[in-house]
Design a protein that fits this description.
single chain, mainly alpha, 2 helices
């Protein structure tokens, strides 16, 4: 019985060579997280003085954490952002 070789693997379509899509998705996720934080803080500010103070204190920490993630502080050594 003759053995037939499998066809060659088709070229990858839609994948970036240098992880541009991965970085784009990460950046988009960070922007969305920041936007949700700002909107949720604005909504909490409409509830009164004390919820506004607590929301602003929490939002400050969340936004700084998002900034640090965007700068790559949480990346492992040798890992590209």
């Amino acid at each position: 019985m003759a053995v037939i070789a499998p066809p060659p693997v088709p070229p990858a379509v839609g994948s970036a060579d240098d992880d541009r899509m991965r970085r784009f998705r990460r950046r988009l996720t960070l922007v969305m997280a920041g936007s949700v934080t700002v909107v949720a803080t604005g909504w909490a500010c409409t509830l009164g003085v004390w919820p506004a103070i607590i929301a602003l204190m929490a939002a400050k920490h969340v936004l700084v954490a998002i900034l640090m993630m965007g700068l790559g502080v949480d990346a492992r050594r040798g890992e590209l952002r």
